Amino acid sequence: MSQSVVLDPVDLHLLRLLQNDARMTYRDLAAQVGVAPSTCLDRVTRLRRSGVILGHRLELDPAKLGRGLEALLSVQVRPHRRELVGPFVERIRALPESRTVFHLTGPDDYLVHVAVADMTDLQRLVLDEFTARREVARVETRLIFQQWDCGPLLPPATLSAKSG
User: Fold this and answer.
1) What is the pTM for the complete model shown?
2) 23-49: pLDDT as tens digits
3) Cβ 17 vs Cβ 33: under 8 Å
4) Average pLDDT over the chain, rounded to whole?
5) Stretch 122-149: mean pLDDT
6) Contact by Cβ (8 Å): 104, 140
Protein backbone atom coordinates (compact mmCIF):
# COMPACT_ATOMS: atom_id res chain seq x y z
CA MET A 1 0.00 0.00 0.00
CA SER A 2 1.42 3.39 -0.95
CA GLN A 3 2.05 6.07 1.64
CA SER A 4 -0.07 9.17 2.08
CA VAL A 5 1.24 12.49 0.84
CA VAL A 6 1.06 15.52 3.12
CA LEU A 7 -1.32 18.05 1.57
CA ASP A 8 -1.86 21.61 2.75
CA PRO A 9 -5.07 23.65 2.27
CA VAL A 10 -3.84 25.05 -1.09
CA ASP A 11 -3.19 21.52 -2.41
CA LEU A 12 -6.64 20.40 -1.21
CA HIS A 13 -8.29 23.38 -2.88
CA LEU A 14 -6.46 22.65 -6.15
CA LEU A 15 -7.50 18.99 -6.02
CA ARG A 16 -11.12 19.90 -5.31
CA LEU A 17 -11.21 22.29 -8.28
CA LEU A 18 -9.42 19.91 -10.66
CA GLN A 19 -11.72 17.01 -9.77
CA ASN A 20 -14.69 19.17 -10.72
CA ASP A 21 -13.07 20.43 -13.94
CA ALA A 22 -9.75 18.88 -14.98
CA ARG A 23 -9.54 21.25 -17.97
CA MET A 24 -9.17 24.42 -15.88
CA THR A 25 -6.22 26.55 -16.93
CA TYR A 26 -3.43 27.20 -14.45
CA ARG A 27 -4.32 30.89 -14.58
CA ASP A 28 -7.96 30.18 -13.57
CA LEU A 29 -6.86 27.69 -10.92
CA ALA A 30 -4.37 30.15 -9.48
CA ALA A 31 -6.98 32.92 -9.36
CA GLN A 32 -9.49 30.74 -7.53
CA VAL A 33 -6.93 29.42 -5.05
CA GLY A 34 -5.20 32.77 -4.51
CA VAL A 35 -1.67 31.91 -5.64
CA ALA A 36 0.52 32.91 -8.59
CA PRO A 37 0.09 30.85 -11.80
CA SER A 38 3.72 29.66 -11.52
CA THR A 39 3.06 28.47 -7.94
CA CYS A 40 -0.06 26.70 -9.15
CA LEU A 41 1.87 24.96 -11.93
CA ASP A 42 4.60 23.89 -9.47
CA ARG A 43 2.06 22.48 -7.03
CA VAL A 44 0.10 20.55 -9.67
CA THR A 45 3.37 19.19 -11.08
CA ARG A 46 4.37 18.05 -7.56
CA LEU A 47 0.96 16.41 -7.08
CA ARG A 48 1.43 14.52 -10.35
CA ARG A 49 5.00 13.43 -9.54
CA SER A 50 4.01 12.25 -6.06
CA GLY A 51 1.22 10.12 -7.54
CA VAL A 52 -1.68 12.02 -5.97
CA ILE A 53 -2.93 12.99 -9.45
CA LEU A 54 -2.99 9.83 -11.54
CA GLY A 55 -4.19 11.24 -14.84
CA HIS A 56 -7.02 12.89 -16.67
CA ARG A 57 -10.05 11.07 -18.00
CA LEU A 58 -12.67 11.80 -20.56
CA GLU A 59 -16.15 10.85 -19.38
CA LEU A 60 -18.57 9.53 -22.00
CA ASP A 61 -22.32 8.92 -21.89
CA PRO A 62 -22.79 5.16 -22.42
CA ALA A 63 -26.37 5.62 -23.67
CA LYS A 64 -25.22 7.96 -26.43
CA LEU A 65 -22.74 5.27 -27.50
CA GLY A 66 -25.49 2.67 -27.84
CA ARG A 67 -24.89 1.15 -24.39
CA GLY A 68 -27.96 2.37 -22.53
CA LEU A 69 -28.21 -0.52 -20.05
CA GLU A 70 -25.68 -0.77 -17.23
CA ALA A 71 -25.36 -3.56 -14.70
CA LEU A 72 -23.18 -4.85 -11.89
CA LEU A 73 -22.14 -8.48 -12.16
CA SER A 74 -21.11 -10.22 -8.94
CA VAL A 75 -18.82 -13.07 -9.96
CA GLN A 76 -17.63 -16.02 -7.91
CA VAL A 77 -14.53 -17.79 -9.25
CA ARG A 78 -13.68 -21.35 -8.20
CA PRO A 79 -11.05 -22.33 -7.44
CA HIS A 80 -9.83 -18.88 -6.52
CA ARG A 81 -6.18 -19.36 -7.49
CA ARG A 82 -3.80 -16.88 -9.08
CA GLU A 83 -3.17 -19.01 -12.18
CA LEU A 84 -6.91 -18.91 -12.96
CA VAL A 85 -7.92 -15.46 -11.79
CA GLY A 86 -5.12 -13.60 -13.59
CA PRO A 87 -6.25 -14.65 -17.07
CA PHE A 88 -9.91 -14.22 -16.02
CA VAL A 89 -9.34 -10.61 -14.98
CA GLU A 90 -7.38 -9.80 -18.13
CA ARG A 91 -10.13 -11.28 -20.32
CA ILE A 92 -12.88 -9.36 -18.50
CA ARG A 93 -10.89 -6.11 -18.67
CA ALA A 94 -10.49 -6.57 -22.43
CA LEU A 95 -14.25 -6.81 -23.05
CA PRO A 96 -15.64 -3.62 -24.61
CA GLU A 97 -18.65 -3.85 -22.28
CA SER A 98 -16.54 -3.76 -19.10
CA ARG A 99 -16.31 -0.39 -17.35
CA THR A 100 -14.70 -1.30 -14.01
CA VAL A 101 -13.57 -4.52 -12.31
CA PHE A 102 -13.23 -4.78 -8.53
CA HIS A 103 -11.55 -7.67 -6.67
CA LEU A 104 -13.52 -8.19 -3.45
CA THR A 105 -13.55 -9.96 -0.12
CA GLY A 106 -16.62 -11.92 0.91
CA PRO A 107 -18.72 -14.47 -0.96
CA ASP A 108 -18.19 -12.83 -4.36
CA ASP A 109 -14.70 -12.50 -5.79
CA TYR A 110 -15.31 -9.80 -8.39
CA LEU A 111 -17.77 -7.01 -9.09
CA VAL A 112 -17.86 -5.97 -12.74
CA HIS A 113 -19.59 -2.82 -13.95
CA VAL A 114 -20.75 -3.34 -17.54
CA ALA A 115 -22.55 -1.23 -20.16
CA VAL A 116 -24.51 -3.02 -22.89
CA ALA A 117 -27.03 -2.18 -25.59
CA ASP A 118 -30.04 -3.96 -24.10
CA MET A 119 -31.23 -7.03 -22.16
CA THR A 120 -30.43 -9.38 -25.05
CA ASP A 121 -26.89 -8.03 -25.15
CA LEU A 122 -26.58 -8.41 -21.36
CA GLN A 123 -27.80 -12.02 -21.55
CA ARG A 124 -25.26 -12.74 -24.32
CA LEU A 125 -22.47 -11.18 -22.27
CA VAL A 126 -23.30 -13.14 -19.12
CA LEU A 127 -23.73 -16.46 -20.91
CA ASP A 128 -20.93 -16.21 -23.47
CA GLU A 129 -18.24 -14.29 -21.59
CA PHE A 130 -18.85 -15.12 -17.92
CA THR A 131 -20.74 -18.33 -17.16
CA ALA A 132 -19.18 -20.14 -20.13
CA ARG A 133 -15.75 -19.83 -18.45
CA ARG A 134 -14.77 -22.92 -16.48
CA GLU A 135 -13.49 -20.94 -13.48
CA VAL A 136 -16.75 -18.97 -13.03
CA ALA A 137 -18.91 -20.70 -10.43
CA ARG A 138 -21.68 -18.09 -10.21
CA VAL A 139 -22.77 -14.75 -11.65
CA GLU A 140 -25.40 -12.53 -10.07
CA THR A 141 -26.68 -9.57 -12.09
CA ARG A 142 -28.01 -6.26 -10.78
CA LEU A 143 -29.32 -3.60 -13.14
CA ILE A 144 -28.34 0.00 -12.53
CA PHE A 145 -31.34 2.32 -12.72
CA GLN A 146 -29.45 5.52 -12.01
CA GLN A 147 -26.10 6.64 -10.65
CA TRP A 148 -24.73 9.81 -9.13
CA ASP A 149 -21.18 11.05 -8.84
CA CYS A 150 -20.20 12.14 -5.37
CA GLY A 151 -18.00 14.97 -4.20
CA PRO A 152 -14.27 15.19 -4.76
CA LEU A 153 -12.01 12.63 -3.12
CA LEU A 154 -9.96 14.26 -0.38
CA PRO A 155 -7.92 12.83 2.49
CA PRO A 156 -9.76 12.15 5.74
CA ALA A 157 -10.03 15.16 8.00
CA THR A 158 -7.82 15.15 11.07
CA LEU A 159 -9.43 14.84 14.50
CA SER A 160 -8.57 18.45 15.33
CA ALA A 161 -10.24 19.67 12.11
CA LYS A 162 -13.37 17.62 12.92
CA SER A 163 -13.69 18.94 16.46
CA GLY A 164 -12.95 22.54 15.56
Assistant:
1) 0.82
2) 999 999 999 999 999 999 999 999 999
3) yes
4) 92
5) 96
6) no
61 contacts 94 by C-beta, under 8 angstroms: no
Question: 31-36: which pairs have CB atoms within 8 A and are 24 or more residues apart?
Answer: 34/10, 35/10
> Can you give the chain as a three-state secondary structure string?
CCCCCCCCHHHHHHHHHHHHCCCCCHHHHHHHHCCCHHHHHHHHHHHHHCCCCCCCCCCCCHHHHCCCEEEEEEEEECCCCHHHHHHHHHHHHHCCCEEEEEECCCCCCEEEEEEECCHHHHHHHHHHHHHCCCCEEEEEEEEECCCCCCCCCCCCCCHHHHHC
Side-chain half-sphere CA neighbours of 8 within 13 A: 5
